Amino acid sequence: MPSNGIHGDLVAGLLAGAGNRRPAHQGLAPGAGLLIFDGMDVLLQAAQWHENQELALTCIALSDGCNEPYNLLASLADRQSFQYKSLLHIFSAGNAGQEDCGYGAGAGWGNITGGAKVSKNGVTVGNTDAEDQIVSNSSRGPASDGRIKPDVCAPGTAVVSTLPDHEYGTLNGTSASAPVVAGITAQLIEAWRDWTNGETPPSALLKAILLNTAEDLGTPGPDFRYGFGRVNAAKAFADLKDEAYVSGMVGHDKQTQFTIEVPPGLDQLKILLYWHDREASPFAAKALVSDLDLKIMSPSGTTFLPLVPQHSPDPEQLEQASVPGRDSINNAEQIILPQPTAGTYTLTVQGTLVPLGAQPFVVSTSLQYNSLDLLYPDQGERLLPDTTIRIVWNASSGTAPFQLAFSSDDGKNWKHIAEIPALKRSYLWKVPGIDPAHILLRLVRGEEVSLSEYPSFVAPAPMGLQIDKKCPDQTSLSWNALSGASGYVVYQMGETQMDSVMTVSDTSASLPLQNPFQDHWFAVAAQFDSSQTSMRSEAICAPSGLLNCQASQDISLMAINSPSGGIIPDCFSAPLPLSFTFRNEGLMPAEGCCFVIRYDQQVVTTHCYAGIIPVDVPVHVSLDSILE
Questions:
Q1: Closest C-alpha among 63, 67, 59, 135 to residue 99
Q2: Bridge pairing between strands 291-297 and 266-274
Q3: How far apart are CA 555 and CA 40, in angstroms?
Q4: Statement: the pTM of the whole predicted model exceeds 0.85
Q5: Would the pLDDT of 2 be above 60?
Q6: C-alpha angle with apex 18: 14 to 22, nearest 5 degrees?
Q7: Backbone angles phi, psi at 29, to 5 degrees
Q8: What is the C-alpha separation between 266 and 264, in angstroms, rounded?
Q9: Radius of gyration of the chain (CA)
């Protein structure tokens, strides 16, 4: 992403914003470490940073042409992913969805904005709205050689992120969708490192999991609007944790087989073969180098082939649903089996064309049960009353509507919220303006019921936070009282995040300071019992300098009397006098002080005043020949 302007700030904040000022606006991977590059420099330097700093993930959200062929940057990106097994590039698809960029099918097709974005091993992301509808300007595939692009899609419409100077704004388009997927992937990497003592997962595995667990939208199977579907972070995490995958290698004209046990009552079986392909020559008419093929045999002996979209430059063909067949241009192949029969399934990976040595691959095996799972809020989130949140859930396909309700008395009584159509997977809800309370949510469809695993805590955040005083050694804060609060937790910005520094019972606090001449950020949360606090207030800044605080001795420059303001020529013929006025704004008289006088950004001289400086009495200094 560009390192100048506000676009980069918005992308970076959506990916990794810590939510220090506004906790409700955290990024997808809060506090993740970021490196900022200018434009496509990230591809030129990624290998070096991967080797030296273990760079695992890039997010590139800028345009570089439209319907570009497989070019130098695409080849470079693929070479890096193939060579460095834990490096993954994520790209925005672009916002040219209504344009005709020469694919041959007219406006609305083949308008991915950049050659690197049609690399084989990266993840290119389209833009959906909050209702899982593709946004009209989200760039569409195919790639110039007919391959599936985008790979996945994600919400990227009117999302709030960071701006310069600690402000916030909205971001729209695939430049918002790409950091959503990058943030989810960063979370998966962090989880894997927790499970494996710090190792970084293979990026081919991450891509396989992301594609295969995505919610299939649009026409059945992969298509050129949604790719393999809208990313599903919860399913991706679960499949990665449950090791729902197998890895292997296959040589030319060889095959490798695996078996999986499918339990009874499964709603859907999704199998995806993926491999990081070697880079092709730049501007190759066909980018695929190694051609692998997947097939599945059921317990009854029926053979199933991958779903392949029709990529002919004909809008009617491009609109059609994928059909089973052999895929000879993509390095991701997916088979979807609805309501599969229980039993042993045999998976075969065929090395149809493997010209440069054995090809590593990953097979993701995602078992989709008849289920209803409330996702958010579900884990004891802090909510603000009278604010609107989006309740989100996963559900298998069905025709019955959902019934949504909440309880504020631990499930004894339930209040109906809404009946929601069967195809929806989210609902905008205004949190009730109630006294601090724990709230459970209940989602029902037919006989299926899903409850919040942990209750959310609804309580207002303290208001009216202000800086009352900032002195050399301490700062004083105050805020408005909240009814029912037993205390307040005070936060101060640490090295990278807001740290709780003290708990008080009153509505004011004094905190020690080491350096008053730098910015300091503070926030406060209300405490309602020994274990539960409200959401933090919006953080406020105590800017550099003193506020409402008199030091014992505080010398302040009042005015420069001469030379007067304006341009001073560099060819004046005589020494230029300098005069200025200062005073002691402290509490006690001071004994002497020194001034450094600069002209044209160079130190000219240091002048020291040796007399007693009384309190609040202007002192005039005149120097006859300081500027020559």
A1: 67
A2: unpaired
A3: 50
A4: yes
A5: no
A6: 90
A7: -130, 75
A8: 6
A9: 31
